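Hello,

Following up on my earlier ticket. Below are the two sequence lines again, exactly as submitted.
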Amino acid sequence: MDDPHENPGVSKEIVELPAPTAWPLVLALGLTFTLAGLVTNPGMSILGGVLVLAGCVGWFREVLPHQHHLAVPVKVQKLEFTTIRTKIARIQVDESHRARLPVHTPSVTAGVKGGIAGGAAMIVPALLYGLIRYHSIWYAVNLLGGAGVAGWSNPTAAELTHFRLSALIFATIIHVAGSLLVGLLYGAMLPMLPRHPILLGGIIAPLLWTGVLHATLGLINPFLDERIDWWWFVASQVTFGLVAGWVVAQQTHIYTEQFLPFAARMGLETPGLMEEHDREDGPK
Amino acid sequence: MADSTLPIGGAIDLTPQSEVYGTWLEQVHDWVVTADHKKIGLMYMAYALIFLLVGGVEAILLRIQLAVPHNNFLSPEVFNRIFTMHGTTMVFLMGMPLIIGFGNYLVPLMIGARDMAFPRLNAFSFWMTSLGGLFLYYSFIGGVGLQGAGSAPDVTWWAYAPLTERAFSRGHSTDYWALALIISGFGTIGAAVNIIATTLCMRCKGMTLFRMPLLVWLNLVVAGMILITISPLTAAQIMLVIDRYLGGHFFDSQAGGSPVVWNHFFWIFGHPEVYVLVLPAFAIANEIIPVFSRKAIFGYPAMVAASVGIGLISLSVWAHHMFTVGMNSASNAFFVLSTGMVGVPTGIKIFNWLATMWGGKIRFATPMLFCNAFLIQFLFAGLTGIMLSVAPWNWQLHNSYFVVAHFHYVLVGAIVFCFPGGFYYWYPKMTGRMLDERLGKWHFWLFVVGFHMTFDFMHVPGLLGMPRSIYTYEPGRGWDGWNMIVSIGGAVQAVATLIFVYNLVHSYFKGAEAGPDPWDAWTLEWTTTSPPPAYNFASEPVVSSRRPLWDLKHPEDPDSRYE
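Thanks for your patience. The regenerated structure is below:
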């Protein structure tokens, strides 16, 4: 590293900096002494009060009507910097380098729309299950909404078949929020698997989700676990996924951002893989 | 081997050293009345390091007492005082000044400013913080306790009510604790206001928000969190003082008050405080890991979003400290979920640090070693944090040594690794001298060994049922051997810390000359001399990317072309 002190070409300038001052210290001491008097001696608080007054007056005079400055003469010169980095090796890539990345994808909002449609559709098998098995459409509603009803612990199967307003409200909130969030997640995942939205949303995701839930719900909420019929659960999930996937498939596709330089999207410096600003001819 | 030498519009102070330094008294006066952010930052750091040693000695005393069962090294009363002072010291007198000190020193330099927005407020904040700490330690001499002897606070650093009420805490020891934290709290709030104003108003030309170094972003987030969280703590301390002096009943359940109110106030401060301390450690890792991987940080926008996300989510998790006070199930569920959510942005950060290192040309210099250890340790700490965030698990382990091990893993594993890493990285900038690498590696490896001996094995007695805060225990409960290992680990950490302190002092006089840019780094602080002149930059820098020094060193491939 070069020693900048040895470099020639020195010029002189003046820089104004805040003037050194003792008043902040005086004020801090005053406040501390004022409070310290509570546990030591009242005289300490009186001394603190005096210091606070002096500190405030001194500080005000320091900044009013104009702040005090210190004119610092500086000597300016050009600094020189070196880098230990060796020469950049640029990676040579051919035209097909990014060919396998998707150029088009459904938008994230398509996922949300799919979530809304899927959420509406999955109500049918859920209510059908309650109707066939317990002769009541409220069973599935109560089962879902019961999680949010404080004080309703371990209801019997018979209790779950009766209408309960609070459970309906909570079930609606949970279902709507869940459908939107799953739709959003679905939309965010689509660029990774854009070609088969119905397969992804209708089969793979419901099976994965059901598997995870089946494996863990017994630990998280054994009561809920006991009352879920997993075959009907899978049917509801698949209904959600198929409808959501179909809705997504109907939406207009948009360009992915894959044609943009990776560095621009992720802040990654990768010499040789980056396209430059003067290339404005859009996606290839 | 350098392949290019490029000019940069920087400035240095060529005033001879003999003209800069006057007499010893003039130097002391110069530091006492200074409004220079760098000197104030260095004073914060020196203050924090002194209290690191004090708090460390207290930790060693505690570990000697707990090394074997039925030990009488400390009396129960002294144990409680040392225990309280250790926690209070490490959080308020070491952690907070350290993060503010680094912020003070680095933020103006990194954004191309000459000083903080309010230099006099900056000095005032430092003096309030430091006087608060001195006042607290004066309680060892001046605090009149139950027996009429001088005594320090003994109500633990979280000071649960009603233990702190006059009926249970006679004398003034608790008052010292409350008043000291009020005093230092005002200093902390002043520092936060200053960092926010400086970051938002003092940036140089071209330094847009999304070109700021991540360290600056994180200091901005932390300053915002300080404003939100220190205020409830200060309010609670004032309520406590009112209870104790003016007959108030805020926390007196027999007179209509509620100790649980204290819990809420304290932990609304207390849990975000963990992030207030940890985010600046992240900030240091954000600067060190890319430079020593020779790659730009991976996913800068995601890192910014994750930092802001952590700041926001961490404000809604406080009651996971209170699962055992008897909250209703909806509250428990909310705080389980919100606590779990913090893991998402934190996970983003860890993945991005790994992605930054992936494929990089890594240099394992001492700063990088510390940051690498931090990555692994913080991952483990996060996992035990997720375990404790689950209410049923928490009910089993609340107030056990598992919790103590968890939060020490977070705080020591992050702060006491990243900040030394930060010292090794920026010490050359601060002093013009390099820290000794060989001593640095001794420091690192001894500290790693000591840390893992202490805090890995501390989980075990917790799982075996050892409660926290006890001053001794019965033999034969399966805790004996573990506690001995934990205490030996503490001693190893102490040796490592002494090596670090020796290195700081030794290298100041004997260290190799650093030059302005010893690490071949990219941010603005490296464009000025080491140490920087009082005015930082003779002319205002102009930047056109997140790595201005990279652009100057690599005109053939500047970042500005891609941002």
